[in-house]
User: Fold this.
Amino acid sequence: MHNYELVYILQADLDEATLTGAVDAIEALIKNSKGEIAKVDKWGKRRLAYPIRKMREGFYVFISFQMEPSEIVNLKRALGYNEQVLRYIVVRVN
Amino acid sequence: MSDYKPRSESRGEGREGREGGSNRRYISRPKFCQFCSDQKLVIDYKNVEMMTRFVNETGKIRPRRQTGTCARHQREVASAIKNARHIALIPFEGDLWSENSY
Assistant:
């Protein structure tokens, strides 16, 4: 198990219910890959430094978690398939 | 031969040490790596304020000779900036705080 950090950007034009639904779905994604979530921090709506898919704003969520390195590939693939996620980054921390 | 002549003519009016081509302006810089001197300071791609300090107004990574960071930490800074660019915290090009940047 290693410590990882995930920051992802959701579309900001989603309504409240689908937004929390999407956040829960990604937390479930980590749990399904046998990960342990240590901290979830919603940064909220932020202006993007440059437009992504012609959108100027995004909803940033930060998650720090523990996971087996072999499971990270599955997590990244699942995040890539999620169309509500504009961008994500997974970083290993010591 | 032709190089030598004007130099000997100008001797006397020029300042000492001028001949070595040192009429370039000296820009003072921090002499110590701030991450080496302060161990508590962590290079973090999520820290927008810190990342903008290592980037010039066109969005380029500032060189070591300007920021004073050591080689090891400059590498970490560079990758942190690239991470921050990827998640749209800082722009790939241009100023972050200028109006109508896009």
User: Anything to note?
Assistant: The helical segments of chain B are 4-10, 34-37, 48-53, 64-67, 71-86. The two ends of chain B are 57 Å apart (CA to CA).
